[in-house]
Automatic annotation (TrEMBL):
InterPro entries: Diverse_substr_monoxygenases, Luciferase-like_sf. This is Nitrilotriacetate monooxygenase component A. Its EC number is 1.14.14.10. Keywords: Flavoprotein, FMN, Monooxygenase, Oxidoreductase. The lineage of its organism: Bacteria, Pseudomonadati, Pseudomonadota, Gammaproteobacteria, Enterobacterales. One of its GO terms (molecular function) is nitrilotriacetate monooxygenase activity. The keyword Flavoprotein applies. PANTHER family: ALKANESULFONATE MONOOXYGENASE-RELATED, C2H2 FINGER DOMAIN TRANSCRIPTION FACTOR (EUROFUNG)-RELATED.
């Protein structure tokens, strides 16, 4: 899909790598993975979400009642398209300011929640559809989230041939097959 769009500036499309960031919650069962996500969600306080929502909407949201629907907002010169999208979401889903702020806080990365097989299925679908070239994995906790992913999901990805068992290059650039850019110092 996205990989089939011509590369900007005449660049070789294979020299552009798409690596979406995804927060992964994995468990032996789907319910266990979902419990991990809910636990982390409950640690976030509204006070830390409101400033983020204010930036996205271009208005000071700290003045709004967090448990009421989003009020009508003045149009701002900053990020009008972004504001329209967030307001439309709030209206469509009848979200309170608190719920909208939570959504805004979660929107920086994608999420994958499930068993090792479910997570691998999602990743495989993205890769087979050429929606991306790989993933940036965001761990909800360290070391537990990291250990869960490396001991539960990585073996499943390797079994499917979707992840290497060895790396031949010394750098990330070499291992994902990107050429070294020409430096202005090389000219």
């Amino acid at each position: 899909m996205l990989k089939t769009v011509p590369a900007p500036g005449g660049r070789d499309p294979s020299a552009i790598k798409i690596l979406p960031a995804n927060q992964v919650y994995v468990g032996a069962t789907h319910a266990e993975a979902l419990a991990k996500k809910r636990y982390m969600d409950n640690l976030v306080h509204i006070e830390s979400n409101i400033p983020n929502l204010s930036i996205r909407l271009g208005v000071d949201c700290s003045k709004f009642d967090p448990d009421k629907l989003l009020p009508d907002l003045p149009t701002t010169e900053q990020g009008q398209g972004n504001q329209r999208e967030w307001v439309a979401l709030a209206r469509r889903e009848k979200l309170t300011v608190r719920e909208l702020a939570k959504r805004a806080a979660e929107s920086g990365t994608g999420e994958m929640v499930g068993t090792p097989t479910e997570i691998a299925d999602q990743m495989e679908a993205w890769l087979m559809e050429e929606a991306c070239d790989g993933f940036i994995i965001v761990f909800h906790t360290v070391p537990d989230g990291y250990e869960d992913f490396t001991t539960l999901v990585v073996p499943e990805l390797q079994r499917r041939g979707l992840m290497r068992t060895q790396y031949t290059g010394n750098t990330l650039r070499e291992n994902i097959g990107l050429p070294r850019p020409i430096s202005h110092l090389d000219k």
